[in-house]
Amino acid sequence: MSAFGFETATSGMARERAGRHGPLPPRRSENMRHVDDRPDVYEAILLAPGEKKIDVEIDTRLPNAAIFTFHKEDHTLGNLIRARLLKTPNVIFAAYKVPHPLTPNFELRVQTDGVIAPRQAVINASQALIKDLGILSREFTKEYELAKAARQQQNGAE
């Protein structure tokens, strides 16, 4: 209810959805302390002192297999590396999972045929991705500059 004694449509719908009956609870006043337990944004991307970016664990259940845990990374890098690993001829299996959506970590499981080690396969895939992304950046910049020059030429002709 408002200060004038009538209920707005929005507050009525909110009360119905929440299943409450009776008046809405009072608004939070400025003198009430609000506790925010969310982690700071930078904690999701910056490593703490002494924290490693990647942990490697040898998978003893399969030959030539390892599990890599990437800290402070998400699906973006996980899917890129997995896709690149699957294009590598010596890689038998590559998959990743995010153990929990609120933690910025993913686990990458890699199995090779024994010609190269899983660690070397991940290193090679990472280097190939860096090379591919460099090419993409150069091509994008070139196309952007060409489109920009064409727009300037078109605006100058008018």
UniProtKB/TrEMBL annotation:
<dbReference type="InterPro" id="IPR037685">
    <property type="entry name" value="RBP11"/>
</dbReference>
<dbReference type="GO" id="GO:0046983">
    <property type="term" value="F:protein dimerization activity"/>
</dbReference>
<feature type="domain" description="DNA-directed RNA polymerase RBP11-like dimerisation">
    <location>
        <begin position="66"/>
        <end position="138"/>
    </location>
</feature>
<comment type="similarity">
    <text>Belongs to the archaeal Rpo11/eukaryotic RPB11/RPC19 RNA polymerase subunit family.</text>
</comment>
<dbReference type="GO" id="GO:0006366">
    <property type="term" value="P:transcription by RNA polymerase II"/>
</dbReference>
<protein>
    <recommendedName>
        <fullName>DNA-directed RNA polymerase RBP11-like dimerisation domain-containing protein</fullName>
    </recommendedName>
</protein>
<keyword id="KW-0240">DNA-directed RNA polymerase</keyword>
<dbReference type="GO" id="GO:0003899">
    <property type="term" value="F:DNA-directed RNA polymerase activity"/>
</dbReference>
<feature type="region of interest" description="Disordered">
    <location>
        <begin position="1"/>
        <end position="35"/>
    </location>
</feature>
<dbReference type="InterPro" id="IPR008193">
    <property type="entry name" value="RNA_pol_Rpb11_13-16kDa_CS"/>
</dbReference>
<dbReference type="Pfam" id="PF13656">
    <property type="entry name" value="RNA_pol_L_2"/>
</dbReference>
<keyword id="KW-0539">Nucleus</keyword>
<dbReference type="GO" id="GO:0005665">
    <property type="term" value="C:RNA polymerase II, core complex"/>
</dbReference>
<dbReference type="GO" id="GO:0003677">
    <property type="term" value="F:DNA binding"/>
</dbReference>
<dbReference type="InterPro" id="IPR022905">
    <property type="entry name" value="Rpo11-like"/>
</dbReference>
<keyword id="KW-0804">Transcription</keyword>
<dbReference type="InterPro" id="IPR036603">
    <property type="entry name" value="RBP11-like"/>
</dbReference>
<dbReference type="InterPro" id="IPR009025">
    <property type="entry name" value="RBP11-like_dimer"/>
</dbReference>
